[in-house]
């Protein structure tokens, strides 16, 4: 770039051929990563983990069937972001089976994370979880912030 030379406008130099929505994908995928969901599923990146993450993100953005889920990956940046654009519905079922086989390990990681956060007493005695929610709301607190008197 030389001094005092005018720069060409971007629309003259570049042509937009395709523009895929990315905002919701980035928001949901970013939140899942900050929560550690990707490493909760498996510590090492794999095709199955990426397919499962893609299923979850797509279901949050567009709740739909598994067949529609795999077809919608090409309408956003999700498929490209996780490298699963070419996945078909059969691969979604394989990933679901992979997730089911990993369920005990995932539950152990969740329990360890829960106890490490110092939340060893998080269950209510009797009643459904929504009853605890209502009890906390009536007491002016937030859900999950129940005191001993609220539990008794």
SSE layout and pairing:
Blueprint: H1 10-13, H2 23-35, H3 37-41, H4 47-61, H5 66-72, H6 78-82, H7 89-116, H8 129-138, H9 148-151
Helix pairs in contact: 2-4, 4-7
Kindly describe this structure.
The protein has helices at residues 10-13, 23-35, 37-41, 47-61, 66-72, 78-82, 89-116, 129-138, 148-151. With 152 residues, it is mostly helical. The chain has 2 domains: 10-120, no CATH class; 124-152, no CATH class. α4 (47-61) packs across α7.
* SSE string: HHHHHHHHH
Beta-strand percent range? under 5%
Number of domains: 2
Work out the radius of gyration.
22 Å
Shape: extended
Total number of strands:
0
Low-confidence stretches: 120-127, 144-152
Distance between the termini: 73 Å
**What's the main sheet like?**
none
User: pLDDT average, as an integer?
Assistant: 78
Total number of helices:
9
Structural class: mainly alpha
**Fraction in helix:** 55-70%
Could you state the oligomeric state of the chains shown? single chain
Short description:
The chain has about 150 residues and is mainly alpha-helical. About 60% of the residues lie in helices and about 0% in strands. The protein has two domains: about 10-120, no CATH class; about 125-150, no CATH class.
List keywords for this structure.
single chain; 152 residues; disordered C terminus
């Amino acid at each position: 770039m030389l001094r005092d030379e005018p720069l060409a406008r971007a629309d003259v130099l570049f042509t937009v051929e395709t523009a895929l929505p990315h905002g919701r994908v980035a928001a949901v995928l970013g939140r899942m990563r900050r929560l550690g969901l990707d490493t909760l599923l498996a510590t090492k990146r794999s095709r199955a983990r990426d397919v499962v993450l893609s299923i979850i993100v797509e279901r949050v953005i567009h709740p739909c069937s598994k067949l529609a889920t795999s077809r919608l990956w090409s309408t956003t940046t999700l498929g490209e972001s996780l490298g699963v654009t070419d996945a078909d519905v059969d691969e979604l079922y394989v990933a679901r089976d992979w997730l089911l086989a990993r369920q005990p390990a995932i539950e152990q990681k969740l329990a360890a994370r829960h106890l490490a956060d110092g939340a060893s007493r998080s269950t209510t005695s009797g009643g459904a979880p929504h009853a605890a929610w209502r009890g906390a709301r009536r007491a002016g607190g937030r859900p999950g912030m129940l005191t001993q008197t609220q539990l008794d």
